[in-house]
């Protein structure tokens, strides 16, 4: 989904050189690019839209964009394996790629089931599963026009996350981590505190840490809450090759069709 992808692109410049302020300019820096987060997000969308086994789609896209780099060591080995098996990951990689599950789900239970289906192929650790599930549920609830307060309460009750902190409270002491437990809640706060889609991305970059992934997760939820301004859609689209655009076009066509049923 484009909300996650635009977040990934915007956050890409700041992953290893954090900018702890919301006032970075421009939104899309000339040095920005899509990263492995986008590749994996498109792969999962391809799997769900076209009925492909998630592991097959993820390997296909990962190998297709191998030179893009950015893969974690264990995921890199998984991509190269002829018989890829889950490797008990507790990282945030499953959460940043799961957006299509929340977008296409027809119920909260369906969101949970789709999330698990596309997550356990790599991230079968409870924290990896929980982070992806929380993100998917947040997207589904936001699509139902659930208030940010009610989404926050549902996620805290269901997943045990501490979402009572504000972005300003998180920012000073936050440091880089790829652990789901220490990055997904922060990303969700960035999305749920936001006043617009762009504000969610600015919140995400401003706390530092794993900026592209934080912004991808926050962006996926913020898209469901607010939609994406057309100028951001148009700019993000220019970063993507034709094969990725085709998958995203099919994804939104399927979402629209389901919404009409």
- The helix/strand class is mainly alpha
Proportion in helices: 55-70%
The SSE order reads HHHHHHHHHHHHHHH
Shape: globular
Low-confidence stretches: none
| Mean pLDDT across all amino acids | 96
Strand fraction = under 5%
Q: Per CATH, what is the topology?
A: ADP-ribosylglycohydrolase fold
Note the quaternary state here.
Answer: single chain
Intertermini distance: 21 Å
CATH class: Mainly Alpha
Structural notes for this entry:
The two termini are 21 Å apart. Helix 2 crosses helix 15, helix 7 runs antiparallel to helix 8 and helix 11 packs parallel to helix 13. This protein has one domain: ADP-ribosylglycohydrolase fold, CATH 1.10.4080.10. The chain is mainly alpha-helical and 261 residues long. The mean pLDDT is 96. Helix content is 63%, strand content 0%. The longest helix has 19 residues.
Q: What keywords describe this structure?
A:
about 260 residues, mainly alpha, ADP-ribosylglycohydrolase fold, 15 helices, about 0% strand, globular
List the SSEs and their pairings.
Blueprint: H1 2-12, H2 36-50, H3 54-64, H4 73-80, H5 93-97, H6 99-104, H7 108-119, H8 126-143, H9 148-159, H10 167-170, H11 184-193, H12 197-206, H13 211-226, H14 230-237, H15 242-260
Task: Summarize this structure briefly.
The protein is mainly alpha-helical and 261 residues long. Helices cover 63% and strands 0% of the residues.
């Amino acid at each position: 989904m484009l909300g996650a992808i635009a977040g990934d692109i915007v956050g890409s410049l700041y992953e290893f050189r954090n900018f702890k302020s919301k006032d970075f300019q421009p939104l899309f820096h000339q040095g920005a690019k899509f990263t492995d987060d986008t590749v994996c997000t498109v792969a999962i969308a391809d799997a769900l839209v076209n009925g492909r086994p998630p592991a097959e789609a993820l390997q296909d896209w990962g190998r297709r964009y191998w030179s893009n780099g950015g893969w974690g060591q264990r995921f890199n080995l998984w991509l190269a394996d002829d018989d890829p098996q889950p490797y008990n990951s507790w990282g945030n990689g499953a959460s940043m790629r799961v957006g299509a599950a929340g977008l296409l789900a027809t119920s909260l239970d369906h969101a949970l089931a789709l999330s698990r289906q596309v997550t356990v192929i790599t991230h079968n650790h409870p924290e990896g599963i929980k982070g992806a599930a929380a993100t998917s549920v947040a997207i589904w609830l936001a699509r139902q026009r659930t208030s940010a307060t009610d989404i926050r309460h549902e996620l805290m009750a269901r997943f045990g996350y501490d979402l009572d902190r504000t972005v300003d409270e998180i920012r000073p002491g936050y440091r880089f981590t790829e652990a789901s437990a220490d990055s997904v809640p922060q990303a969700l706060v960035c999305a749920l505190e936001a006043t617009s889609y762009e504000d969610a991305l600015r919140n995400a970059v401003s706390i530092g840490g794993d900026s592209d992934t934080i912004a991808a997760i926050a962006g996926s939820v913020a898209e469901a809450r607010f939609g994406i301004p057309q100028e951001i859609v148009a700019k993000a689209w220019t970063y993507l090759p034709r094969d990725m655009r085709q998958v995203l076009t099919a994804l939104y066509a399927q979402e629209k069709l389901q919404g009409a049923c």
